[in-house]
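Tokens for GPN-loop GTPase 2. Go.
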Amino acid sequence: MPFGHIVIGPPGSGKTTYCNGMHQFLSALGRKTVVVNLDPANESMQYECAVNIEDLITLDDAMDAYQLGPNGGMVYCIEYLEKNMQWLLDRLAEHEDCYFIFDCPGQVELYTHNQAIKNIVRRLEKSDFRLACVHLVDASYCTEASRFISVLLLSLTTMTMLEMPHINALSKIDLLNQMGQLDFNLEYYTTVMDLDYLLHHLNNGHETGEKFASLNRAICELIEDFSMVGFSTLCITDKHSVAALLKEIDKANGYIFGALTEGNESILLAANATDMLTEARNAQARYGLLTKAPTDADADASESDDVGVLRGKKSGIDNLVERLTIKEHAQTTTSPSRSKADEIP
Ligand SMILES: Nc1nc2c(ncn2[C@@H]2O[C@H](COP(=O)(O)OP(=O)(O)OP(=O)(O)O)[C@@H](O)[C@H]2O)c(=O)[nH]1
Ligand SMILES: [Mg+2]
């Protein structure tokens, strides 16, 4: 019963870098892992891939044979793979007892409209693969309400389309502090709490119409009604961040339950688990992410005191959690070996 995960996300979100980093991390943990390249346009493959779609079809071949552009050629290649699934299954069968990481293309339509990737996953599942989906989106989307809403919609569409255990992750979280201050604490973006606060920022600067505000409200309600989207955080060079994400993945695809063999490191990882909220608070502290001061208009967005919590003014139990989090963070950051030893080469 092979386990693994597929790695998807918009172009440049860090999929190939992730596959390389996670491959090294799992190998260091002693988990026999192979990376499968399903992206025929993968130019900078940093890992040694065990199975490569380019051995079946290349993007250039598809474009030349049918006079297609790069996007059409990519869709053709994936549909060609869908029709030749036995080729993929035979190649995968050559890697017994391995954990599989699938590096996928960045074309968003493959996860929102086209059925090919979905059918490929179904076929793998029928062949007893236990898979989860890791959807990477650039953390810079958090810096503007409108961009964050678009990423929420994309994540929701992808989740409902693929219908498989799914983890969304804000990638390159280490770069977020270079992109200015956030409107809210990071945990607001990871937990996708009350979108009324975001609604206010969406409407801000668009005084033109009630229709625009109604559209924004309807989109926020849609996302809240499904109540499915949340985010983990990821900096691929930080082993704490990779370990936290791996715990989520192992729970999602069942590796933690299905691979109960002696020395299964995922049991140890899970025993050491932190929840998503604490992880977001750790990430906020670790990467020095700043939050803007609240405006008067923000206070109008809610009658309650919750907005203070979203901006870091905590009380009671939150204060306690905050102190614990900071202590935990201080322990890790003052460790002399942390800066180099924690980096995956
Ligand atoms: N700082 C930082 N940079 C990252 C991280 N992950 C990826 N990158 C950088 O992001 C850029 C794009 O990464 P890729 O791995 O090529 O992205 P991709 O999603 O595979 O791109 P496509 O295959 O073209 O869709 C590279 O320059 C990476 O070095 C991260 O966690 N932190
Ligand atoms: Mg790539």
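The longest strand covers residues 130-138.
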